[in-house]
Amino acid sequence: MIAAHYPALQIALPLIAAPLCVLLRRGTWAWLVTVAVSWTALYVSVQLLLQVLASGPISYELGGWAAPWGIEYRVDSVNAFVLLIVSGISAISAPYAYKSVIHEIPEHQHYLFYSAYLLCLTGLLGIVITGDAFNVFVFLEISSLSSYVLISLGKDRKAVTAAYQYLVMGTIGATFFLIGVGLIYAMTGTLNMADIANRIDQVQNTRTVLAAFAFITVGLGLKLALFPLHLWLPNAYAYAPSVVTVFLAATATKVAIYTMLRFVFTLFGTDFALDVTLLAEFLMALALVGVFAASITAIFQNNIKRMLAYSSVAQVGYMMLGVSFFSVTGLTGGIVHLFNHAMMKGALFMALGAIFFRVGSVHIDRIRGLGKQMPFTMFAFVIGGLSLIGIPLTVGFISKWYLILAALERGWWPIAGLVLLSSLLAIVYVWRVVEVAYFRDPPTNHPKVTEAPLSLLVPTWILVLANIYFGVDTTLTVGVADTAAKVLLGLGQ
Predict the structure, then answer these.
(1) Is 303:213 a contact under the CB 8 Å cutoff?
(2) Which residues lie across from 303 on neighbouring strands?
(3) Model-level pTM greater than 0.90?
């Protein structure tokens, strides 16, 4: 049955489709292939999640070689949820890409864009599904290298500089991660992640394992843009093509956070992270400083994509704050925010892409009066902004509710207060955009702007409505996140 090979199919399809796009050498055909592969990947992700929830973790042995000798793809409720996020965003971003790519990227590069996009999707899905520590590095490099290419295709010449900056910092992060994996292999003699988890207890108190933990934590901290290792992110998001910003903002940092969760909780173990490394205190301090520093910086940005990029650094802070509680409620909040932030930031960047399609700029002065000229686009931005703030009946409220609950469970009232206070900063930078769009007259020296085409509006509104639906019905998101948190903490399968 083909269902038995879903884990391999999840990686094989986009990996095979990427060179196929190059062979087709036609942008439209390459786009059709990308849409078909993305929606197939979403279907496979849904089936894997349902199977895991119904019957427990899935182990898939590549080539018939039994783990730990062979490479194993392993799916549990944690990575099944992240697979759903990545493939779901890709499935919505791919249709959005058609007109956006035509508008922002030269025609002769279209098929190359879709090839790089599919390679990036391959890498992100591979990081999530593999059960082999070295394979994580391999897929990390596939996704990173293709990301550098995608970012460099932006219209502004600064996109090349942003891609180069990301290349330098990303390479440092990947090198640190690889050194950590090498040290673990030296101490355990295996690369299978489940096998490492079984063997590492015997060598856990050695300096080598402690050094491996440090290298992996710093390397992944660079990849997930944890403050102050976030310097590559603002320029990368601000100058990349619109659809690239949508896809990377909603997926790349989430996958890096998942990888850190997997290594910290599954490989090294909660006791090691808490007692030996004091990771909880370290992460909490960086997360809180990052939330406030990035939010304050966002307030002073006039490029709205750059503003939302700094907002993403703050949102990463919220996710890592949830992780730092090392409790079921805190981890649930952090994991559910992986999903929720993908919804809200995907919707916001899609709305900005639609504005760029019509106006040719995302500078705050160029959106004056767009509330009347592009009502559907700007209203989508408003709802996404309300979700970012954490208004009730949006997904952002659910995330912050669980973070506050986690803080109150520990009796940490000041932490709960800081989460609420940081939401006020989000109000400031979201309101700047709303005020200019709805309460100022459009510039007289520019032609009248019309609403964005449906091919851009429909994917945007799918994510906007998802922000509301999953803010009301949390059965899927919180239910799966709660199960995943218990798995990571060793309280369930």
Answers:
(1) no
(2) 363
(3) no
